[in-house]
Amino acid sequence: MTATAATREVERRFGAIAAVSGVTLEVAPGEIVGLLGANGAGKTTLIRMLLGLLVPTGGSVELFGRPPSRESRRRLGYLPQSGGLYDDLSVMENLAFVSGVYGVPAPDLGHLEAVRSRMVADLPLGIRRQVGFLAALCHHPELLVLDEPTSGVGPLARAQLWDTIHAAADSGVAVLVTTHHMDEAEQCDRLVMLSDGVEVASGSVEAVVAGMTSLEFGPSDPAAAMTALEDSGFCVFPVGHGLRVPDASAADIRLVLGEPEMAVATRPATLEESFAVLSSSKRAG
Amino acid sequence: MMIVMPVMLLVVFGYAASFDVTSIGVAAGPGAEAVVALLPEPFETVEAGAGDPLEALRLNEADVVVAGRPGALTAYIDGSELFTARAALQAVTTVAGQGIPIRAEVAFNPGLETSAVLVPGLAGLILIFIGSLVTSLGVVHERQAGTLEQLAVMPLTARDVFVGKVAPYFGVAALDLTLVLVVGSLLFNVPFIGSVWLLALGSVLFLLVTLGIGVLISTVSQNQGQAIQLAIMTLLPQVLLSGLIFPLESMAPGVRWIGYLLPLTYFNQVARGVMLKDAPLEALVLPIGLLALLGLVVFGLAVLRFRSDLAPSGRRAVAV
Amino acid sequence: MSYGLAGVDVAYGRVVALSRFDLDLAPGSVHALIGPDGAGKTTACKVLVGTRRPERGEVRRPSAHLVGYQPESAGSWPDLTVAENLDFVSRSFGHRRDGRIDELLELTRLRTARDRLAGDLSGGMRQKLAVAMAMLARPALLVLDEPTTGLDPVSRSGLWRLVLRAASEGAAVLVTTSYIYEAERADTVTFLDDGHAIATGTAASIRAGFQGVMSVTAECPEAGTFWRRGRNWRVWTRAGTAPANGTTVAPDLEDVVTAASMEPVR
């Protein structure tokens, strides 16, 4: 089956700087693909090329099997980080405008009926994002592109927004979403991790973690321990009042910290830790 | 920028700011040639095709037309050119005082009111404010808020978005223009004796230019601060070099050419001509034509830039 | 001598940003302030450092030269180099050639970037520079507004190392964050929602105050109070009524916060 959206070795240079280089990814119907990476890693540039807002300087982009065009816009829904709504219009006015552009009936507001005539700027962020979702989905797109749809929102609202994402995927929509929350990344069918414009990992969560383990321990001086370990080239993550180091041996840790008797527990690495190890090895090698 | 700009402004406006009248075109009706030849500097004899003195003034063939029976000559002075008229009036009165049988009559704006001459141009200035400044701020704001990007991914053509964004400003500007002219006329007793349709034509063309400038500014501005700066840079020269305050003829040639590039210069000519003199289309062919040309160029450029700014990829295949 | 706020009210027009807000910051400890956008975290920071005067309430802070503050936006001058940025701050606080700048460059691992323009640095490095600038004068009170938002995981944890270091130097540190799990690293936590402190105390005490039982299920429950997290669902039940197909777990901060936001609080 043709992927709904695909890039092949796509590249975008701005002058001498390559914001994105050689990224290949695909999103199939019903799939949720998570795009991870720090701000400035190239996620937004990649998305803009996928949407047809930016022309690649190398490689190719395909939407529904062909290069992005005005026709393909009809079949995609986009929720930018800014929300995509007019702050000085009401919920109803925003939805009427969007559905009018696509030539579809205005969507059913469901539980948002209570705020239909409230101005978007006056609504709490969680509700605003829900309205944004409604607007992006009103024309039943085949591809949904979401740029940090849950940023700044509380945990309950985040969970509810992801319910909407899963519902869309379950009904066959291909979803591409960027996020900084690892627990959201875990919900994706596949992940693509970007660092400095380059793909450092891709595949399912299991494939990315690939059996990596982390060592967990509680040193007496966490701050000093972190410094010592980082100086020796390890990635270190504070956890509660202890530390975790992925992809390392207990002997090495004890040696660096000068604590041969320190208790060390082995745990499966988290997605965040895998990401860190993969990014730093890509940078080094 | 902070050093060069003020110096440049000083030099330019220093050469522009002058109320001195360097030449007054005077046409002689039959029998009046002898007297006209006696008129001192800065009067310069010109040919007038129209038979009727007022018609000649309407057609901008001369600033003053001397006609009538020898021994009872009247110098018809075009009151819509304020400083020229004042100078002419002064000169004619002096000449009459020396015994020559000539009297002055100021046609069009007989009271030589400054407001009559200023209000039409001011209406144009307000159009620039809305067309260039407010429009550019509005579009830049949308770009910053991200709503423009949202429009870019919808199945809308760049033209749809452009018209959708610009049309409201056009409507508001048209309303404002009407308001200003009506209020200005009533409050300051500015006459309006000409064709409303001609003024409307000139206004529409002028608006196209100013709106085009507004959109152009929005495509090169990253934020509202920049948009304001650029809009002011287009507004200031038009205030001072368009003939609104200082007559174009009085400006040093080295600076006058700038005035010939400004849309307000031509709108001013159209507005003054229509409102004060009931100027016919033939008299206004040049300013209207130039406004149309400017409109085509500026607006066209704005649409092109806006389109590429909004979303560059169309139906073309992507290069590998 | 603890710093903080007592009974602070702040309103912007009719919008209440903070309501009867208390905050206690002990020297040498890290306090995390968590909450969604618009909860009042930035307002609390501004009141604490003095850029916003509250309508009501008491603010306890040291004199200005002992306060270090990194606002949510940049915090460093993009057209100056790393070294110039630090030098400028150092001079503003009464230049003392005591090697503090070198110490911070080492700590933040920015030594090799000392002559690069701040504007050219990656997001993570710029944030570290901003925190370093706030730490430069060895402040008694250090306030960092969302220093980790938008950063990659490696930069995030590197930044926490700075935070822990500042506390070990004796500063009372306030960090706001949108990542609830980061709050688990702090000594004390306040959860803010809509201008009100929903929960406050050590992470352990907040968790201990949780009423009910948390379970994790792999399938979406048919009924009850539950929400999605990761690939599973977190189910919240009264004691003794945990779902059969679930595994009981100890509630973490995010559970407490999520449950709290479901209750009608006021």
Explain what this protein looks like in three dimensions.
The complex is a heterotrimer of chains A (285), B (320) and C (266). Chain A is of the alpha/beta class and 285 residues long. Chain A has ten helices and 13 strands. Chain A folds into two domains: 5-208, P-loop containing nucleotide triphosphate hydrolases (Rossmann fold); 213-268, Alpha-Beta Plaits. Helices cover 33% and strands 26% of the residues of chain A. In chain A, strand 11 (237-239) and strand 12 form a beta hairpin. In chain A, helix 3 packs parallel to helix 4 and helix 4 (125-137) packs parallel to helix 5 (155-170). Helices cover 64% and strands 9% of the residues of chain B. Chain B starts with a helix and ends in a 10-residue tail after the last helix. Chain C has 266 residues and is α/β, with parallel strands linked by helices. Chain C is built from eight helices and 13 strands. In chain C, helix 2 (82-92) runs parallel beside helix 4 and helix 4 runs parallel beside helix 5 (153-168). The radius of gyration of chain C is 20 Å and the shape is globular. Chain C starts with a strand and ends with a helix. The mean pLDDT of chain C is 88. The chains are: A alpha/beta (285), B alpha/beta (320), C alpha/beta (266).
SSE layout and pairings?
The complex is a heterotrimer of chains A (285), B (320) and C (266).
Chain A: E1 5-14, E2 17-27, E3 32-36, H1 43-51, E4 58-63, H2 70-73, E5 76-79, H3 91-102, H4 125-137, E6 143-147, H5 155-170, E7 174-178, H6 182-185, E8 190-195, E9 198-203, H7 205-209, E10 213-217, H8 222-231, E11 237-239, E12 242-246, H9 250-257, E13 265-268, H10 271-284
Parallel strand pairs in A: 3-7, 3-8, 5-6, 6-7
Antiparallel strand pairs in A: 1-2, 1-4, 8-9, 10-12, 10-13, 11-12
Helix pairs in contact in A: 3-4, 4-5
Chain B: H1 4-16, E1 24-28, H2 33-38, E2 43-46, H3 53-58, E3 64-69, E4 72-78, H4 82-97, E5 102-107, H5 114-145, H6 147-152, H7 158-188, H8 196-220, H9 224-241, H10 253-259, H11 263-277, H12 281-310
Parallel strand pairs in B: 1-2, 1-3, 4-5
Antiparallel strand pairs in B: 3-4
Chain C: E1 3-12, E2 15-25, E3 30-34, H1 41-49, E4 56-60, E5 67-70, H2 82-92, H3 100-108, H4 123-135, E6 141-145, H5 153-168, E7 172-177, H6 180-183, E8 188-193, E9 196-201, H7 203-208, E10 213-217, E11 225-229, E12 232-237, E13 247-249, H8 253-262
Parallel strand pairs in C: 3-7, 3-8, 5-6, 6-7
Antiparallel strand pairs in C: 1-2, 1-4, 8-9, 10-12, 10-13, 11-12
Helix pairs in contact in C: 2-4, 4-5
